[in-house]
Amino acid sequence: LQGAGAYLQINCSTPANVREVVLMPHDAAEYAARLYGVLHTLDADGYDGIAVETPGPGAEWEGVLDRLRRAATSEG
User: What confidence score (pLDDT) does residue 56 get?
Assistant: First the structure.
């Protein structure tokens, strides 16, 4: 991350320059249910960036990965 940021984490260690860590659920359905709310809150907090630990492999995570890709490419 450049500047001060936030990090959505499941298991890994926290990267440098992170001011806030959000522990996300290990369950794909629970993660998906929380994702947009967490991203909107962090965006409103004015961080320079939001990093996300890549969720686990498997079909149950495909929807989450799609949402993360969409969020990463959306503007404003």
Answer: 81
